[in-house]
Amino acid sequence: MFLTLLRASRGNGVNDFLKILIAVLLIIIPIGYLYVKPSSAIRNTFVATESIKDYCGIALIGFFVGVLVGITSIGSGTVTLMLLLVLYGYSPAVVVGSDVVHALLLTGFTSLIQARLGNVDFALVGYILIGSIPGGMLGAYITKSISATRLKQTLCAILVAFGVQMFWEGILHAK
Fold it and tell me: How many domains does the chain have?
């Protein structure tokens, strides 16, 4: 509804603008994160969160990501992952694992809404799942065998690559 109102007042360029904005974040934040010195105490569990301020900040990240997912389907993994790594210092493996479960629940709710609106091609979903379920299982096992530093570097490189691709597509489409 919000995006519909925004498109009505600003035109279809809103999607391109959002795509470019997210792409810039996916380029800048991971590059900056690679140069941040690791904290002496990397959080390995959610219990390490120290205050109500942390809980509220994490909830705001969730709200921001929920809006992005609802509008663009972009953000569930990428934005949450980077914000939790950068702002809260959780280990990359904990962030990946927590974000995957978060994405399951978030996309579960939003997928029900999208299905009710008639926006889902279930055959397409099935084909995507054929590859993504085994790939996700393999990736989950790989995170246990990679050091936190190497996983951090890998995640940042992947996010920057996606950001560059999204930025390029957004610029080309916006013309």
Answer: 1
Please, what is the Cα angle at 26 between 167 and 105, to 5 degrees? 115
Each residue's pLDDT tens digit, 40-91: 444 444 445 567 777 888 888 888 877 777 766 666 677 777 777 777 777 7
* DSSP secondary structure string for all residues of 117-133: TT---HHHHHHHHHHHH
For residue 132, what are the CA distances in angstroms to 70, 94, 136, 137?
21, 20, 6, 8
Distance of alpha carbon 18 from alpha carbon 66, whole angstroms: 14
Domain limits for position 76? 2-174
Q: State the sign of the Cα–Cα–Cα–Cα dihedral 162, 45, 100, 57.
A: negative
Residue 146, Cβ neighbours under 10 Å: how many? 14
